[in-house]
């Protein structure tokens, strides 16, 4: 998170996982939340992304869904 209120967030890693099922993608995201102080996750929930979104929501209820 930003050091000061209203400050900028930083993107530490960005991933595109192709060929992985949605559970494997959610597991990879969970590992990132354990590695970093994650305060925001946004997921494109169209198509296969909806399964990823549902799995991530189980361990990170604040996940944002984009359609």
UniProtKB/TrEMBL annotation:
UniProtKB keywords: Viral release from host cell
Keyword Protein transport applies: no
Coiled coil: none
One Pfam family hit: Terminase_6C
Positions of the Terminase large subunit gp17-like C-terminal domain: 4-62
Translocase among keywords: no
Name the record gives this protein: Terminase, ATPase subunit
Source organism per UniProt: human gut metagenome
Source lineage: unclassified sequences, metagenomes, organismal metagenomes
């Amino acid at each position: 998170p930003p050091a000061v209120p209203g400050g900028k967030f930083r993107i530490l890693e960005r991933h595109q996982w192709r060929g992985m099922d949605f559970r494997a993608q959610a597991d990879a995201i969970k590992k990132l939340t354990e590695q970093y102080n994650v305060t925001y996750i946004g997921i494109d929930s169209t198509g296969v992304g909806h399964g990823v979104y549902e799995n991530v929501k189980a361990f990170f209820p604040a996940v944002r869904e984009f359609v």
